[in-house]
């Protein structure tokens, strides 16, 4: 069953990445009138770049985690089996 779930999980992860970009851009737009700074920009405020990177990373992790967990719940509903460990101590 894991071989079938893996491509689904990869696809969901890619979609989560795109969704997290949209969420970050919307969130950044609430607090700043300009586009979030990127490390490739030459002239920027370093503190603003640091905040943008921290927020972007947190949003990405949150969205990917929620999408992954939701995908696993959908898989369990469809197949009756949970793809992965039942609880943290089962991961060894």
Which of globular, elongated, flat, extended, rod-shaped describes the shape? elongated
- Helix count from the secondary structure assignment: 2
Task: Pick out the low-confidence regions.
Answer: none
Strands, total number: 0
Average of pLDDT? 91
The sequence of SSEs as H and E is HH
Strand content: under 5%
Measured as a percent range, the helix fraction is 55-70%
Number of separate domains: 1
SS-based class: mainly alpha
End-to-end CA span: 19 Å
Give the C-alpha Rg. Answer: 17 Å
Sheet having the most strands: none
Would you kindly provide a written description of the structure presented here, covering whatever features stand out?
The protein is mostly helical. The chain has one domain (about 1-20, about 35-80). About 70% of the residues lie in helices and about 0% in strands. The chain has helices at about 1-30, 45-80. The longest helix has about 35 residues, at about 45-80. The protein is elongated. The model has no long low-confidence stretch (mean pLDDT about 90).
List keywords for this structure.
mainly alpha, 92 residues, 0% strand, single chain, 2 helices
Topology:
Layout lengths: L1 H30 L14 H34 L13
